[in-house]
TrEMBL record:
It comes from the Bacteria. This is Efflux RND transporter periplasmic adaptor subunit. Gene3D superfamilies: 2.40.30.170, 2.40.420.20, 2.40.50.100, Helix hairpin bin (1.10.287.470). Belongs to the membrane fusion protein (MFP) (TC 8.A.1) family. Residues 269-336 form the YknX-like C-terminal permuted SH3-like domain.
Length: 338
């Protein structure tokens, strides 16, 4: 009986001891907060496109008369200096015959004019007849000179320094007058063309600055928008932005380029510091804090310049978001500020 009286208080003491154990404290994260702010923001619009020859950069070489291709001195891709021969042509039999006839006709016309002048001096021909003979001689000599120039111009030369872009003939080809032979792209005359969403194109204006990204071969370069073509390309479904590139930029026709242009958003832009933005498998989110508790908010964003990002959906002006310590926070966790 004595044992029972001794054991009972001990059991009671043990029970009281277990009931008084402390519960684990809820985790509390140490964070820094910043407000979502309404106002003006500069949005960076990404652009993708390619460098191409400027409108005046493409120079065409054509056959001045019917001729055969004798030699191709500068194939496509060759860098040429001004005046360098690109393609050599040889006059065809028809061109030789026509040139010879033109020369003969000019000689006959000159003799006829001289005879008419003598006969007018003898009173055997009127002034009007002499003028007719003079006009015929002028026309015949012009035709002879034209053939001489065409035959003498059968060595087709680069009009300016550049790169032979295309050669559309082969040795031995018989070419008709004005037939395309080759094209040369003038060095230093390059522009960039970017494809953009048609709605985005409405926000861009000539004179805005595009920052073209650099690469291992050249430095970044800034250029001004020259023109905006809002017409939608039937294949790409994009509008076009054009900008001229300064000489010496290192950009060459055909090079794929990327860039960006800053567009100011006014009035309704809601921004937060970049540091507040987190990512969950491509879904951007932030932790908004209310009454000391952090709540996850999925947001929709627009890119922005500087150190702030524009929020299109998911937050309200004035809400406090976690900008430091967010990686240690979970949805519904209590937080305290630094």
């Amino acid at each position: 009986m004595t044992r029972l009286w001794i054991a009972a208080p001990m059991l009671l003491l043990a029970a009281c001891s277990r009931g008084g154990e402390d519960k684990p404290a809820d985790p509390v994260a140490l964070v820094k907060l910043a407000p979502a702010m309404q106002g003006e923001a500069a949005q960076d619009i990404a652009l993708y496109g390619a460098a191409e020859a400027g409108p005046a950069a493409k120079m065409s070489l054509v056959a001045p008369a019917e001729a055969k291709v004798a030699a191709i001195d500068a194939p496509a891709g060759t860098t040429v200096r001004q005046g360098q021969i690109v393609v050599r042509l040889a006059p065809s039999p028809t061109t030789r015959s026509d040139a010879a006839k033109a020369a003969s006709d000019a000689t006959v016309a000159d003799k006829a004019l001289a005879r008419a002048i003598r006969m007018r001096g003898d009173g055997l021909m009127s002034d009007a007849e002499v003028e007719m003979a003079r006009a015929a001689a002028v026309a015949a000599n012009a035709l002879r000179a034209s053939f001489a120039d065409r035959v003498g111009g059968l060595a087709l030369r680069a009009p300016a320094a550049g790169i032979v872009d295309t050669v559309s003939v082969a040795v031995g080809d018989l070419l008709q007058p004005a037939a395309a032979v080759a094209t040369v792209t003038r060095s230093g005359d390059v522009r960039v063309r970017f494809g953009v969403d048609p709605d985005t194109a409405q926000t861009l204006r000539p004179g805005m600055t595009i920052r073209i990204a650099g690469n291992v071969a050249r430095a970044p370069v800034s250029v001004a928008i020259q023109s905006v073509n809002a017409n939608v390309d039937t294949q790409t479904k994009l509008a076009s932005i054009y900008a001229n590139v300064p000489a010496g930029s290192g950009l060459r026709a055909g090079e794929v380029v990327s860039g960006s242009v800053a567009v100011m958003q006014t009035g309704s832009a809601l921004t937060i510091p970049y540091a507040a933005l987190l990512d969950d498998a491509g879904q951007p989110y932030v932790y908004a804090v209310s009454a000391g508790v952090a709540h996850r908010r999925d947001v929709q964003t627009d890119p922005a310049t500087g150190d702030r990002v524009t929020i299109r959906k998911g937050l309200k002006p004035g809400e406090q978001v976690v900008v430091e310590g967010g990686t240690a926070v979970e949805d519904g966790m209590k937080v305290r500020t630094r």
